[in-house]
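Review form for a predicted model. The reviewer records the input and the model, then writes brief findings.
Reviewer: anonymous (R2)
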Amino acid sequence: MTTHAVEAAAVALHQRTWTPIPEELALASEFFARREQLEQRLLPGMPACRNSQGWVTQHVLWLEDAARVADELLALWRDYLPGSHMTVLLQAYADHARRVVPLAQQLSQAWATERPGACSHQETVWWEDWHLPAEQRRQLDELTHSTIVIGSVMVSALSQAGYAP
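Model under review:
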């Protein structure tokens, strides 16, 4: 999905030319509920991160899981809400989050190959520094920002209708 489609939904919501119907609100609410339940996954043997934000790898795996949740809901709702701004937003969210899938697979494979057992916090810091260089982290930040923007439009739709995500 394009940025244009997300912007169109945001403008329509702001100008009140789109008032989400109960089914759209249910879809968004269900997505946020399921996303909230996602656990921060660690790779096998990866120690818990001392930083409250967790490892970058955990964020990559979480985005992969969020894309899966969005895809599952879209499979159930897309035909029921054809052309809906909410399905367009959720599709855009899924498309953006899904971009991490190759990275998640790459990290999982590298970890399994290089770190078959438990390792220390510092070894994990070094491992992430090696496998997630600054440019890749910058791209991940941009991708995360995009999902935040899309999610904020969905939250705005829920909020206007009196739903609490």
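Findings: DSSP finds seven helices and no strands in the chain.
Further findings: Helices lie at 3-14, 22-36, 56-77, 85-98, 101-114, 121-131, 134-160.
Recommendation: see findings above.
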